[in-house]
From TrEMBL, chains A, B:
InterPro entries, sorted: PurS, PurS-like_sf
Gene giving rise to this polypeptide: purS
Family: Belongs to the PurS family.
Name of the molecule in the record: Phosphoribosylformylglycinamidine synthase subunit PurS
Catalytic activity: N(2)-formyl-N(1)-(5-phospho-beta-D-ribosyl)glycinamide + L-glutamine + ATP + H2O = 2-formamido-N(1)-(5-O-phospho-beta-D-ribosyl)acetamidine + L-glutamate + ADP + phosphate + H(+)
GO BP field: 'de novo' IMP biosynthetic process
Pathway: Purine metabolism; IMP biosynthesis via de novo pathway; 5-amino-1-(5-phospho-D-ribosyl)imidazole from N(2)-formyl-N(1)-(5-phospho-D-ribosyl)glycinamide: step 1/2
Known EC number: 6.3.5.3
UniProt-annotated location(s): Cytoplasm
Job description of the protein: Part of the phosphoribosylformylglycinamidine synthase complex involved in the purines biosynthetic pathway. Catalyzes the ATP-dependent conversion of formylglycinamide ribonucleotide (FGAR) and glutamine to yield formylglycinamidine ribonucleotide (FGAM) and glutamate. The FGAM synthase complex is composed of three subunits. PurQ produces an ammonia molecule by converting glutamine to glutamate. PurL transfers the ammonia molecule to FGAR to form FGAM in an ATP-dependent manner.
Leader peptide range in chain numbering: none
Organism, as annotated: Natronoarchaeum mannanilyticum
Length: 102, 102
């Protein structure tokens, strides 16, 4: 590759990197309503045995992800794909994504 | 117990119940900074193997608790005690509590 072309690519990569912004995305993964939640039931019964009064309890998993992206939308899109492919099981889970600039 | 006294107690209980408000408290339990998080590390590596770019990932447990209480402060206090006694291990976890009226 001609040195001119090489430095061109290098400069483009650097400028792309500089244009990136740091975000923290939070993914909250919950069991869909109606899906049994044995962990939550066990926790609720343990709390009641300790004498606490509560009507119901639901548990959820939460992932806080630090990433660099061109925009807030790009960050949200990438994290939604992470949820679809790994963090959540679409058959039994619902999930929501929040993105904040760091 | 004299019937008058009985109905007094009954009335007081009913009025206390009526004065209660329905809240949802959310407890988010995180590992303290510096405590190893093997689940998060495994999840991050799996995401990277799928080709995702991310800087870091932290996992947290989240409990959503429906309860009745006299006030928002009373609801928060009860849920903080639940966290201290069962939901979080004070040695390795930090937690925060949010309370919303239902």
């Amino acid at each position: 590759m001609h040195t001119g072309a090489k430095s061109q690519t290098f400069l483009r990569t650097v400028s792309q990197l500089l244009a990136m912004t740091a975000y923290t995305a939070t993914v909250t993964v919950r069991l869909k309503t109606g899906v049994l939640d044995p962990e939550a039931e066990t926790t609720q019964r343990a709390l009641e045995r300790l004498g606490f009064e509560l009507e119901s309890l639901r548990s959820a998993d939460r992932f806080e992800i630090d990433l660099e992206a061109d925009s807030k939308e790009a960050a949200a899109e990438r994290v939604e794909e992470m949820a679809e492919r790994l963090l959540a099981n679409p058959t039994i889970h619902d999930y929501d994504v929040e993105v904040e600039e760091r």
